[in-house]
Design brief:
Number of domains: 2
Strand order of the largest sheet: 3-4-5-6-7-10
Shape: globular
Radius of gyration: 24 Å
Oligomer: single chain
Strand content: 5-15%
Distance between the termini: 32 Å
Number of helices: 18
Helix content: 40-55%
Number of strands: 14
Length: 494
Amino acid sequence: MRRITEVAFPEHPGLAERLQHNQQHFLLTHADHYERRRECFEKYFLEYTNAFDAAAEHYADAHPKAALRIAAYRELVETGIVHDQFWHTGNVKQLTVLYKMKPGEFAKPGKYGRMLGDYGVHASLQGFWLNKLLKEAEANEPFVYCGITFMFVASPKRDALNTVFALLMNPPGRGFMCYFSDDACISVRIDGQVYIFNSDINSCDRTHTDAIFDVYVKTTPHIAQADALNLTQQCARPLRIFPVPRKGEKMEPGKYVELTFEGRILTSGWSGTTRINNLASESYGLAIAEAKIEPGDVAGQIIAAAMNAGYSISLEPCPEPEDIQFLKHSPHQTQDGSYEAVLNIGVLLRSSGRPHGDLPGRRSESLRDRANAFHRGLLQGCYPDVSIPIIDVMKKRVGGTLVSSQTEAAIKRAIDTRLAYKVDATPSTSSPSPTTPTTIFFTDAAIFKRYRLTGTEALELQEHCRQAEYGTHFASAAVSRVLSRDYKLTCPGL
């Protein structure tokens, strides 16, 4: 709860207020830019009529939440709720937002666990198609501002990632910035030298002002602006927090804390979250493009420029290509010398096993066989057309299918949910066909370069992967380095 209610940057009195003022001023003085972006997006909304028609046409489209959307839409039809009344007025479900801990969430040391605003599936029906069109429009409309090229990357497709990694390493003009939500990478060219940084917005949700919701509406094409405005009103709703009942007890409906805020606030779970964070990244990128960055403390100058747009950012220098991390991928050198995007192995380690729900199956199927099926699917899902010796060894260790097709399918659904938005298995355009993707070959050394593993650490990790069995636990300096590099997590005692 403190993530959303606490003043941002309490260790720096007055900073939050100064950033809020800067943000409001910056968005107001750059209205012409955002108007041009809206004009670029208009052609993507030619068939859009309103939120209700969009929900009626697309509620059953393929999506991880399709079953929920189908049930919610049918309920709306049965109750007779129509047009823009189906959430923010006359809602059949809720007029407050349930604020709750993200399921299975493990917070980083020193950080609060992430919370989700549960607006209800009915609420997402109001904006899912509008935001999908905005996402498509933004991905197809990169732009140049003050000599710096800006590109929104909508998904972790290898072709798209290879493009942005190449542009980061050799930026056109003065520089290049790619972003997805508050995850971004920036490269600037100064006196012929290229400086590359991974970038992140500090206390992102807490530093948005009401003004950025206005820009969200104004950058939406005219036909959908009324729907966009209605959608942002969901973010003005009170948050309702219920105590977690003890085991065996039921939740008490009338026992809760309700928080009401001035203006609109962003919580994870709102259907426009990515677009709002994209606007934040775009805004501080514009401020960086306007700044005259000199040789010397390049990072400090970039951070100061971002603050002019109302955002405090963290930068991680990338002296080597492998240091770049975007959408949990990094460029690594293949055996033929080119660079290709690869999912970082920290994602594999962090996804390998959760306390609940990973191993569905029949009683007759042993946990060993189910665990092998889970990790077989996880390895294939993370590295579908990549050959890395350490990964290939693990794929062989988990063997072939020893569970039923129903269990295999249930495990696949769990893995697909785990890897959603982290991996896009669409074959590269260099593949001869979608059914015969080209395998890309890497050495272990090329992958380990990102983690600066010593020879001993690399050998230890390789040996463990060759001998790993069901039920074994492994922690090492190499594992700690990987998790620290990819997630800023550490293994206690190492």
